[in-house]
Amino acid sequence: MKLRFFPSAPIDQEDSPNVVAINAYYLSVPFPIEKAPTRKITINGGGVKISELLNYPVRGIAFESGNSIEDLSITVSDSSICLQENNIFYNVLIADSGKRIFLLPQMASGSLVLYFGYLI
Fold this sequence. Notes:
The protein is of the alpha+beta class. The protein has helices at residues 32-35, 69-85, and strands at residues 38-43, 49-53, 61-64, 90-95, 100-105, 114-115, 118-119. It contains two helices and seven strands; from the N terminus they run H-E-E-E-H-E-E-E-E. It has a five-stranded antiparallel sheet with strand order 1-2-3-5-4, with helices on one face. A two-stranded antiparallel ribbon has the order 6-7. Strand 1 (38-43) and strand 2 form a beta hairpin. This is GDPGP1-like C-terminal domain-containing protein.
């Protein structure tokens, strides 16, 4: 198994109360989120398919493939930076050897997040 990490999101440790923690797991069976149904929102210019999770206990966005791994990483990075700039905590799950990435915004109690024009 080969792991690659593309850190492109700036982390401002002085002005940000965010804590960055990286955990890695490898399982021989898929996580339940990997089997969750999705509905396509759009396909961006880099060929990355962006979908919302359906019938899953938490709201989230799935990013799939694209023209290159770089297109996928740039799309997820841009989305992560958007959440970070709006002080929205989030989790990232990388699946299928990096071909699918799930972005899971964390919501404060009673608040809603408007993301990509969709209420999640």
